[in-house]
Amino acid sequence: MKIGQPEKFIIDGKRLDGRKPDEMREVKIQAGVLKRADGSALVEWGGNKVIAACYGPREVHPRHLAKSDKAILRCTYNMAPFSVSDRKRPGPDRRSVEISKVTRLALEPVIFTNLYPRTTIDVFIEVLQANAGTRCTGITAASVALADAGIPMRDLVPACAAGKVGGEVVLDLFDIEDNYGEADLPVALIPKNNEITLLQMDGNFTKKEFEKALDLAIQGCMKIYELQKGALRERYGGE
Ligand code: ADP
Description:
Elements: E1 10-11, E2 14-15, E3 27-31, E4 39-45, E5 48-59, E6 72-79, H1 94-107, E7 119-129, H2 134-148, E8 159-165, E9 168-171, H3 175-180, E10 183-190, E11 195-199, E12 202-203, H4 207-236
Parallel strand pairs: 6-7
Antiparallel strand pairs: 1-2, 3-4, 4-5, 5-7, 8-9, 8-10, 10-11, 10-12
Helix pairs in contact: 1-2, 2-4
The chain binds adenosine-5'-diphosphate.
């Protein structure tokens, strides 16, 4: 057992933060929170606070990155030094480069990039407070920010993770579960055609546990999808 590891993760059917195994943390999404961005969103997901800002379609710098037949999408995930308990060294690191890349891959399939050749769509994801699941929170925020910027898209992209703690498959790990649990499975998908655009796995599941975790994460994504649409409805009205 690692230092700080709880003896049990589930006591009388409840997790250490009081949730049931298939219960998500409280999630609040607000669209259009930044004046100077073309589109933006704030997502508060349990102890996570993440802002996404979207700019574009706009001219590409450096120019050689431009594509003659479509827009490029650039995603930058960044954690504020004060977002975690020990101060995080500012600037990019391996983890943020990886998350920036998987975020781009998760979002790119929904964007009609062919409509804006020779331009860039830039998305900045700033983690102000982290408590596990920030890549899912970031993708969720970024997709609302893209919609808020009026970028033509096939659908929104919700994201949510499931994991395994104390031998049980649970939805949406918080930090203690993430740090000391056995597995984590972040998922993002396109609800319209049930296409998974992010699937990562940290730790070990049996085949059965994996299937259960994937199922739970997909259900979580569908809940997030409703909240994303709710945030856009709140800002713009209508159906
Ligand atoms: P995700 O945030 O998508 O779950 P990770 O599994 O890499 O990604 O990180 C899990 C959690 O670990 C983060 O949400 C954050 O709470 C914490 N964490 C990540 N990087 C650091 C860091 N440099 N210092 C302290 N805590 C960190």
